[in-house]
UniProtKB/TrEMBL annotation:
<dbReference type="GO" id="GO:0017148">
    <property type="term" value="P:negative regulation of translation"/>
</dbReference>
<comment type="similarity">
    <text>Belongs to the Iojap/RsfS family.</text>
</comment>
<dbReference type="GO" id="GO:0090071">
    <property type="term" value="P:negative regulation of ribosome biogenesis"/>
</dbReference>
<protein>
    <recommendedName>
        <fullName>Protein Iojap, chloroplastic</fullName>
    </recommendedName>
</protein>
<dbReference type="GO" id="GO:0043023">
    <property type="term" value="F:ribosomal large subunit binding"/>
</dbReference>
<dbReference type="InterPro" id="IPR004394">
    <property type="entry name" value="Iojap/RsfS/C7orf30"/>
</dbReference>
<dbReference type="GO" id="GO:0042644">
    <property type="term" value="C:chloroplast nucleoid"/>
</dbReference>
<keyword id="KW-0809">Transit peptide</keyword>
<comment type="subunit">
    <text>Interacts with chloroplast ribosomal protein uL14c (rpl14).</text>
</comment>
<keyword id="KW-0150">Chloroplast</keyword>
<keyword id="KW-0934">Plastid</keyword>
<dbReference type="InterPro" id="IPR043519">
    <property type="entry name" value="NT_sf"/>
</dbReference>
<dbReference type="GO" id="GO:0000427">
    <property type="term" value="C:plastid-encoded plastid RNA polymerase complex"/>
</dbReference>
<dbReference type="Pfam" id="PF02410">
    <property type="entry name" value="RsfS"/>
</dbReference>
């Protein structure tokens, strides 16, 4: 678990081999998704909504090729400043999620693994109206406090994505979160210690 106060020390970590935006990464080749196998499994999984499958296919279709490693590295001091700013923003959004009763909120430092963002936020919601409430409040807080407007979903899906550039938010219904299991595919990412008590992943 990475304390928020020390994440800046990782600013100099190398990007290594990178993968497309939205694609799933692991250092273990067997963990990288096989499209044909995954498509077959998803087609037979009744708990995974069709709109989530469509979203997944769009990610693969739009960003389905391996791209270059990072070459535009900033000086270490600038990277530390950027990481600190992004961390503050990510923790703020995670706090917003807990205000709307999201569960099992995780912030992952993924910059050493991908070239296109610094932090993931992954959270569970229990209904589409709750997803919409989390999404709307995050957008509102980000715009008013940080001047950031995300790209991504304009309506609540069972896997809803908000892309703020340096922070990417994934809000799942429980079955979709368990099925797509981003935490496993990004298993080498460093978790950030959050300043609040997390709700359990499932309602009692």
């Amino acid at each position: 678990m990475l304390p928020a106060s020390t994440v800046m020390s990782l600013a100099g970590a190398g990007a290594g081999t990178v993968v497309p935006r939205g694609f799933l990464y692991s250092n273990t080749p067997s963990m990288v998704l096989n499209r044909s196998r995954e498509t077959h499994v998803r087609a037979s999984h009744s708990d995974v909504n069709e709109d989530t499958d469509d979203m997944y296919e769009d990610l693969i279709n739009n960003y389905g090729k391996v791209v270059f490693s990072r070459k535009d590295k900033k000086p270490a001091s600038a990277e530390i400043d950027d990481d600190a700013e992004s961390l503050s923003f990510a923790v703020e959004l995670a706090t917003v999620a807990t205000e709307v009763k999201a569960a099992d909120i995780k912030v992952l430092f993924v910059k050493p693994l991908v070239y296109w963002t610094r932090f993931f936020i992954i959270a569970t919601a229990f209904s589409r109206p709750q997803i919409d409430a989390i999404r709307s409040r995050m957008r509102d807080r980000a715009e008013k406090k940080y001047g950031k407007i995300p790209t991504g979903d304009t309506k609540p899906n069972s896997w809803t994505l908000l892309d703020f550039g340096d922070v990417v938010v994934h809000i799942f219904l429980p079955s979709q979160r368990a099925f797509y299991n981003l935490e496993e595919f990004y298993g080498n990412a460093t978790p950030v210690e959050l300043p609040f008590e997390n709700q359990p992943p499932f309602r009692s």
